[in-house]
């Protein structure tokens, strides 16, 4: 449940309003399927004990469609040649209301729900006795689990025209819904629309952002409303006006789509659906808080300034970060201790708590790692290839930053430090989202690191995302964010890959194999097995699958199995191994292309394995645990990739770079290639 919507657990009485665009199709006919799906959700809530009150629009639109048809079939050809007069809206309302309620009654009856109709006008609410009787009638209906259905009685309303007059106690069905929510003491008002909620601009504008929580002090006056819906009276402007009025009076409001399946249930379950209006919203949201897009754009702008610095200046920033870590060791340990205490209180797994802990030795190690990264060869602008295309026309292929990285990681606060240092070295902007269990650790580390970034670059080079709810918005920013790197569970990686158009670099399962050949040195095999599995079992480079040659001696195989069992490893086998050693049979065998190792004394077999196995890392007679950025001499890593495009294996600075081509000429033109003498001569980097 979204923390800002925790009040939903106390909601009992709910007013739902369905707009004309929801209950009718594009051709003006009633949208029977969509209305039926909404009613099924209301029936489910009714059976769970919620008190449901429905306010509906659509009568005028439905009536107009029927009267147009009636007018058409009763008109002569000559009549059709004359200018067509707009059909009276009140007549449309009278005809449409009859059909609308007939449909509603039929649909609710099929769901074994009793509905009731209440038509009201603006003038009715001027009478105190009416308001008292209204409340009594509705309470009586709700006691019988009947669903009262309200609509403005446009047929006899004293307004000049339903679509023109916006005066009175209420002026459309959105404001009627807000008024009824207050009169009937509802706990929640839900306005169902044809869009997902309130956007910062027209929903059709790709730069518009869905506003999850409306804060009057922040959003009022900043929102650009597009055209109102194809039907109905006021569109989103009217809904916002009604929602703010109701919320200010104490009734929370959610504007959500009536087109999305199960949306109503999700709203009542407290999920972050649509736009929430609440009178306390200003206390939940920091008024100066950046949106996801603003944070990403700021990181990009800062990265551009970072790239303009000299190599020595960028190196000095990293040295300053390392010094700041050591200088703030006590504060970091204190905040991390609070996270660890909370994790233990919450009874998190020991393995997670182990990854969470930061000790002085770890902070010293991180500072050392940052200094090593600072001393690396300058990566930005490095010439990878230099070619003379023609006399005086020199082409260079150079390394350059990707742009803005979004890293989503779990548990380990030390990952934040490693990733930030690699981003600075590679000239990239960075957005970080860590796990909630390391919230305080991540906050202090982010503060310490950004304090070392000079104003000439800007501390917003590295942004810390504090809410999980911001991730969906960030994953939509394929025009600003260049790469997403999820570090964590298989579930996290798969969810991210399925939720974005932005390229994703990561591994799914992190499954590693060790293959024991028939010629293997068994003492070496046993040592490699134990290290690959037990040095750090939670790591992605730990062994999951043991494979053995079919001709390996049974006694040698038995010794390996007993060695793993002795160390407390739970074993599952394939069909042969499970029966041979009386262990449970594995349901399936996965592979991921992460790290594979062969243990053999036969060099020819080893070379065959190394050249034929298609994985990010392939080892001969070495533990899979060596597949690590620090151990590979990369200084640190942002993760290990099993993708084949861009970076593969441990991803250090080079994996955060792409290439660009720089061409230097002396007035050269193509002109159909006439007169151009192509040489395509490879040059040393110091030539030309």
UniProtKB/TrEMBL annotation:
Pathway: Amino-acid biosynthesis; L-proline biosynthesis; L-glutamate 5-semialdehyde from L-glutamate: step 2/2; Amino-acid biosynthesis; L-proline biosynthesis; L-glutamate 5-semialdehyde from L-glutamate: step 1/2
Catalytic activity: L-glutamate + ATP = L-glutamyl 5-phosphate + ADP; L-glutamate 5-semialdehyde + phosphate + NADP(+) = L-glutamyl 5-phosphate + NADPH + H(+)
Ranges where the Aspartate/glutamate/uridylate kinase domain occurs: 12-257
Coiled-coil boundaries: none
Record's keyword annotation contains Amino-acid biosynthesis: yes
Enzyme Commission number(s): 2.7.2.11, 1.2.1.41
Keywords: Amino-acid biosynthesis, ATP-binding, Kinase, Multifunctional enzyme, NADP, Nucleotide-binding, Oxidoreductase, Proline biosynthesis, Transferase
InterPro entries: AceGlu_kinase-like_sf, Ald_DH/histidinol_DH, Ald_DH_C, Ald_DH_N, Asp/Glu/Uridylate_kinase, G5K_ProBA, Glu/AcGlu_kinase, Glu_5kinase/COase_Synthase
UniProt-listed HAMAP family: ProA, ProB
Protein role: P5CS plays a key role in proline biosynthesis, leading to osmoregulation in plants.
Family membership noted in the UniProt record: In the N-terminal section; belongs to the glutamate 5-kinase family. In the C-terminal section; belongs to the gamma-glutamyl phosphate reductase family.
Name of the protein in its database record: Delta-1-pyrroline-5-carboxylate synthase
Species of provenance: Penstemon davidsonii
